[in-house]
Design a protein that fits this description.
The chain is of the alpha/beta class. The chain has helices at about 15-30, 70-85, 120-140, 145-155, 180-190, 210-220, 240-250, 265-270, 285-295, 305-310, 325-335, 335-350, 355-370; strands at about 1-5, 40-45, 60-65, 90, 105, 140-145, 165, 195-200, 230-235, 255-260, 275-280, 300, 315-320. Helix content is about 40%, strand content about 15%. The longest helix has 17 residues, at about 120-140.
Length: about 375
Amino acid sequence: MIIGIDASQSNKNQKTGVEWYSYHLIEHLKNIPLNPGDKFILYASEPLKNDLKNLPLGWENKILNWPLKRFWNQIRLTWELKHCPPDLFFSPGYYPPFFYSGKTIFTVHDLGLFSSLGEPSLKQKFLTRLFLKKALVKAKLILVPSFFTQKELKKNFPLINNSKIKVVPEGYSSDFRPRNKQETRVILQKYQINKPYFLFVGRREKRKNIINLIKAYARFRKKQAADLCPELILIGQSGLEQAKIKKIIKQTKGVRVLGYVKQPDLPYFYNQALAFIFPSLYEGFGLPVLEAMASGCPVLASQASSIPEVGGKAILYFNPDKIQEIAKKMKVIFKNKKLREDLKIKGLKQVQNFSWQKCAQKTYFYLTQAIKD
């Protein structure tokens, strides 16, 4: 049994949701003992970095050099798969190469592109639907991180066989755990943070509902003493609607944009936040919610899409379309220390339902099942 995996997303330097999923899944698949003769092949356009390059027995890295910045997977990877086909090709990041006809499995993380919140051109949306539909038809199995995404897939592609869609929830890194105040203080001082704060982690774009969050924070701030009011810290890369988002940030006191924060520092931000606020309108899973709870951080979040699947009863929910409601929930959690402690305890219990090792074991089961079928 030979399973090939596209490792290009996991090998990126600045990782976000999809890249971290690919990275952690590969790392935990390595923990699963292989039968004699079985092999995993990791395909990438450059040498694997950090822990990825540490390959156990039965694992191999194929570096597929490519001079261009684009089309590596559609041309170079396709050529490799056609000339040296594995028994199964798995793409954890995006859909498999369009012109490859061998056995495939891939992960559909979300279908936000096809929702009312997606903002691609009609041409981009048409081409994406075309490529995705072909990949879905060809695939032996399709992995999704939540029942919400499973439902979205059925809605957008009703002709796809339901039995092919398998729900495999994501996990969280052991880096995300409660920390002591002293080590947290050292990290936060590096970023010149010395006031209480609310925290948002994610791309600053329309579907993350960042504008409603800032408007709600502005309402909350008006009713607090300026010297006692917590800041709102935004961590993550910029996305669509940047001109509008930058304008409202500039107009709102107390908002700080830190941009991308490296993974080793991120747990400390979660750990000392008064609350993590996640107002997203559309999520395929909601990994930051899991990371926040695992770090011992109380969570305020939207009741939309997949978020209740991840948060269960451990989150204080709000309607993401109602700015006044978000502001009220911010006030409640700011004023009520007992509530914050209660949410921390519930969150740490809730995250025990998720782990990358569980994700890897379930994924491995479906990979081997697809080969046998």
